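Reopening this ticket.

The earlier resolution said the output was attached, but the attachment link was broken on my side. Pasting everything inline this time so it's all in one place.
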Amino acid sequence: MLPDIPGIHHITGIIRDAQVNVDFYTEVLGLRLVKQTVNFNEKFTRHLFYGDEAGSVGTVLTFFAYPSEDDGRLGKPQISTTALAVPPGSMPFWQKRLTTHNIDYEGPFERFGETVIRFTDPDGTKLELVTAESSVDPWIAGPIPAQTAIRGIHGVTLLSTNIYVTASVLETLGFELIDQAGDRIRYQSGGEFATIIDLLDVDAEFGREGAGSFHHVALRVPEEEQLYEWHDLFRERDYDVSRVKDRHFFQIALCTGTRWYPVRACDGESGTCSRERLRHPRGAVVPSTLA
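Inline output:
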């Protein structure tokens, strides 16, 4: 019997300007740029990875940079928002920091016993900071004090074309229905961090992928063998499942359904990018060879 999915592996978005993205996520939010590579499906597209010191699973945000990309349009089936975990009591610091950098935000407001503020990055990507206890150690060599620094991914919010089908798949993966508040339905995995997936039960038009939208969310499995087992299970249930692909520092299988948001399952509980150390980004961090 397959063990339950412990949580989120990483989340990937789409942007235009790589340097603007680096400046925001490292200098404003204080994440570490842990890897710069290319999109494995489009070799001339930059792929930026941010996270904790080692790029541990459950802390990593990644972005594909397309300089001429049109704006995305939020809708279904898409990830509407990514939430990052911050320590309880740190919201006044983050409110002041966002204000100092001329970033508009909504909140703080309470949701499921957590304090939340909502804002966007320079491309319009929707983000939240959420107070939550986390076992993740923050990146402490950046501009944010350790006691207030981001502790990895908290979760994602999904807009589904069929919320019942999405809920069924989450339950198959081992996520449990925790609570509901208004049109927001909360599912949580049994891992220690990056465990939250919220579903929005709202009417929404169909979205369009582009700058400021999220490309995918990846879920983590502890062992490569389990990745193949999940692959076979979803194929048996008539989902469109890719072959297992080697991404060098993790392996993936892409699963899509006609009424469910695309998700990737990735192997590995250790550091996503721990084999490659990059200096803290200052100045020209995007290699000119990729320009």
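Reporter confirms the inline version is readable. Residues 7-214 form a domain with the 2,3-Dihydroxybiphenyl 1,2-Dioxygenase; domain 1 fold (CATH 3.10.180.10). The chain has one domain: 7-214.
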